Amino acid sequence: MAAETLGLVLAGGLARRMGGGDKPLKLLGGRPLLDHVLAHFAPQVAALALNANGDPARFAAYGLPVIADPLPDHLGPLAGILAGLEWAAAHRPDLAWVASVPGDCPFIPADFVARLHAAREEAGLPMAAASSGGQSHPPAALWPVALRGELRAALLAGERKIDRWTARFGCAEAAWPAAPHDPFFNANAPEDLVRAEEILQSLPPEAIN
């Protein structure tokens, strides 16, 4: 199903806990977090796009579509997911699915997209989200482009919480272990970057992209 999936990196947050700026452009191992995310994500999908607000030129070096939230006022990750769904429908109608990951998750697993598809197919549900060590990660998920109208309507009606919206339709869970490190570790604050460096140094060379 990877041939039918757009990979969407969510980079539209305000990064308040990181002191502002673009979290995905913070450095890990001498390279932006986004480099690590894309290296793990790109082999799993048919195409990639970034959800980010503001001047898209700061991501120009990546050569990827940069899609702003389609609704104003920084409505959170659901707005970024809507951006990806609507972009796919308009520009890549051959892609029926969008897999999303936060732009500050540098260690996403190599089987992320495949296992999300397997989980939703086994459960007979339209969506699937990741979990690790018993903790759910609603923004790391798989979305059908066909639900873009329902998502836009929900956002306009005031919905902001991912798992509350997905519960309306059904969302399967794909679970990973959180050891030896959490594959969905995200760098929300400066101290998290220190921990990410420790994880990076502990990885075997073949696991570092």
Features of the shown structure:
209 residues, Spore Coat Polysaccharide Biosynthesis Protein SpsA, Chain A, alpha/beta, 6 helices, 30% helix, 7-stranded mixed sheet
Structure summary:
30% of the residues lie in helices and 22% in strands. With 209 residues, the protein is α/β, with parallel strands linked by helices. It has one domain: Spore Coat Polysaccharide Biosynthesis Protein SpsA, Chain A (Alpha-Beta Complex), CATH 3.90.550.10.
Task: Walk me through the structure.
This protein is an alpha/beta fold and 209 residues long. The protein has helices at 33-41, 77-91, 112-123, 148-156, 162-166, 190-202, and strands at 5-10, 27-28, 31-32, 47-51, 66-67, 97-102, 127-132, 135-144, 171-176.
Radius of gyration: 16 Å
Number of helices: 6
DSSP summary, beta strand count = 9
How would a crystallographer describe the biggest sheet?
Answer: 7 strands, mixed
Helix content: 25-40%
Q: What is the topology, as strand order, of the major beta sheet? A: 5-4-1-6-8-7-9
- Supply the helix-strand structural class: alpha/beta
Q: Look up the CATH topology.
A: Spore Coat Polysaccharide Biosynthesis Protein SpsA, Chain A
Q: Round the mean pLDDT to the nearest integer and report it.
A: 89
Set out the fold topology.
Blueprint: E1 5-10, E2 27-28, E3 31-32, H1 33-41, E4 47-51, E5 66-67, H2 77-91, E6 97-102, H3 112-123, E7 127-132, E8 135-144, H4 148-156, H5 162-166, E9 171-176, H6 190-202
Parallel strand pairs: 1-4, 1-6, 4-5, 7-9
Antiparallel strand pairs: 2-3, 6-8, 7-8
